[in-house]
What does this fold into?
Amino acid sequence: MIGRERLRVMVVAPERHALRQPHAGGLEAVVWNRVRWLRSRGHDVQLCAAEGSDFLGADIDLHLPSPRWHQSRDASDTDFPEGHRRLMTDAFARVRDQLDAPATRVDVIDNHSLHGDPILWSRDIGVPVVTTLHTPPLADMVIASNALTGSSPHRFLAVSQYTARAWSAEGVEAFVFANGVDTAQWSLGPGGGDWVWFGRIVPEKAPHLAIIAARQAGARLKLAGRVGDAAYFDREVRPLLGHGIDYVGALRQPELSALVGAASVALVTPVWSEPFGLVMAEALMTGTPVAAFDSGGTSEVLAGIPGTAIVPSADTDALAHAATALVEQTRLGLSRRVVREAASARHSLDHRHREIERVLTVAAQSAVPAHELADAEAVGA
It folds into this structure.
């Protein structure tokens, strides 16, 4: 750690899914890579995450409870089983108490939770918290954010301008800090194969619309990803499989990179306010062109990168035509290496992580001493 400060960092992960491969989604992949990189830089990193995650230590209080569904088909990415929210509140209270003890205090919290409680730790115990806003505004987080005082050592980062504007409308101001992709993990692929769609299989990602577009274009399509809504998959996706449309399941990162890198074009079909859309940057890093719906922050991710096309949301006809045109551009000489180089210049993870290291280092200097917290509480009383 010559020439830089060694930080004691607690990374608070999104609590719904364990951080491990195959990743549950882009958010989990981002945080998994963050922990790995910070540790490689020599920082003392503790992880607070769902049980079963990689990188968890022996401290059981940092193992967050995972949702326990009565039946697997009841599992949802948008809701929790009855009683789970109370379990999470109790778990975060134990983490807060640990952070408040001098022996186990850290320099800074790198917070990616979608629960409001970790946001309040900056106000309640004076520990600096850097919260990254990965989603559209969530009520629990908005309430906690607006409960912070002016002296709370807290910084908010948003993954896109679009996301920052959405949170600003709720009274939460954030600096824009886009996600990044590991150029070593997502290597240049040969292309030329089937079309591809990959991501969480949930209604808001709308893979069924990618299938419809591929059929309209007469193209073969492979879908990869975790089923996050079994009812949606059975209703909208499964009936469309076959005849050149194949679902290959949830893949570990090396296999997923190989699949995407072998594709001639990637379809991205969000029908919600997409905060960032990591799959676009990942596909481009392999050299595979991207045709995407214009939703949320997608235009920011693709801006200025060759081999990309944006069409109106839910317009499968326009998507089919755009994807076909990108395949033709590649046949006529669009270099996959040029696509990768442009994506790397915009979305390299190493560059992003060096920036976050600086942010965490600066934030760590804003801790509020215990006696000042006590004075503030006395004044408030």
